[in-house]
Design a protein that fits this description.
alpha+beta; 2 domains; 55% helix; 17 helices; five-stranded mixed sheet; three-stranded antiparallel sheet; Arc Repressor Mutant, subunit A
Length: 331
């Protein structure tokens, strides 16, 4: 298994064990992780799976992952939790969760597909299968979170499917999700109906949303790349931008692979070359805009844009602000 999850999940498990009258540190063999204030404390997903297994060996509950995930509150996710609370609808909150998923769950990346009847969230196994306890906790947390911020305690997905084998007690899953639940699926899928994702949230705040969104982007930028391939691709794109040639073909050649191979690896990671290019450009733009000696036109040129207007449109799409406005706020 590859990837990491937020230390928030481990603290949530400690809270649950304490609620059950148990010494969590004794059961898990370690103290609860501290909060360093950065919002970036994480643990390997393999270790998280081990902790859940240790707790389950003592509690022997039919679905421990569901029980732990169901207790999630926006405050458990810190900055990201408060950001989603400021959104207008659940659809907007889900978009933010997808944007910053790595801050809380950096394992298999979510694929979001909109349809006429709602939205589908899908996770594959390109970085491994953490197991049913881990997956159940994550999906239960997602649904409990949606119920909380929409103030709809009975809200239900249209369908949930797990990539894992069926547990002994399937009824407890159907009772929690209040919808059909399948197992042994090719991927883990959550389908949310249109009426639910259009639901208004309890306390939208556009001004605070903009501020917290910028902070969440800064947190995400401080995370290490998901793997060496992502890091090398980002460095290759940056070098291509400096040299004036950052196309898919040229970057693939620098990575000693074909364009098709590079695209296939990006597809497996739930990404695309355009997404990688935009992400690299945004990171570089935010870095260079911090240098007051560089004019906006020069930053645009460094990023490979033919004119400043094209850069401005792209930067507004990434951040919601024009480059000049963003620079003033940072100062």
């Amino acid at each position: 298994m590859q990837g990491q999850v937020s230390a928030t999940y481990v603290r949530l498990l400690h809270e649950y064990l304490a609620l059950r009258g148990l010494d969590a540190a004794a059961v898990l063999g370690e103290a609860a992780p501290g909060d360093d204030g950065s919002g970036l404390a994480r643990v390997p997903v393999a270790h998280w799976a081990t902790l859940l297994a240790r707790a389950d060996a003592v509690l022997q509950e039919p679905a421990l992952g569901l029980s732990v995930g169901a207790r999630i509150q926006p405050s458990h996710f810190g900055l990201l939790g408060y950001l989603t609370l400021c959104c207008t609808t659940l659809a907007e909150a889900l978009a933010r969760l997808a944007d910053y998923e790595r801050l809380v769950y950096d394992v298999n990346r979510v694929q979001v597909t909109m349809g006429t009847d709602g939205v589908q969230l899908e996770w594959g196994d390109e970085r491994g299968r953490p197991g049913q306890r881990v997956d159940a906790c994550a999906i239960a947390a997602l649904i409990a979170y949606a119920r909380n911020i929409t103030a709809q305690p009975d809200a239900a997905p249209a369908e949930v499917r797990f990539i894992n084998a069926a547990p002994d007690d399937v009824a407890v899953y159907r009772a929690f999700f209040r919808c059909p639940v399948g197992f042994d699926a090719p991927t883990t899928v959550v389908r949310l109906p249109l009426a639910l994702i259009a639901a208004p949230l309890r306390q939208p705040d556009p001004a605070l949303h903009a501020l917290l969104d910028a902070q969440a982007r800064a947190q995400l930028a401080r995370l290490s790349p998901a793997d060496d391939f992502e890091r090398r691709l980002r460095e290759t794109i940056a070098a291509g931008l400096r040299g004036g040639d950052a196309t898919l073909a040229s970057c693939a050649a620098r990575l000693n692979c074909s364009s098709r191979t590079l695209q296939r690896r990006l597809d497996a990671a739930g990404s695309s070359f355009q997404q990688a290019l935009d992400d690299t450009r945004r990171r570089l733009a935010e870095s260079w805009l911090g240098d007051p000696r560089l004019k906006l036109a020069e930053v645009a040129q460094l990023l490979g844009y033919t004119d400043q207007a094209a850069f401005t449109r792209a930067f507004q799409r990434w951040t919601g602000s024009a480059p000049g406005q963003w620079r003033k706020r940072q100062r």
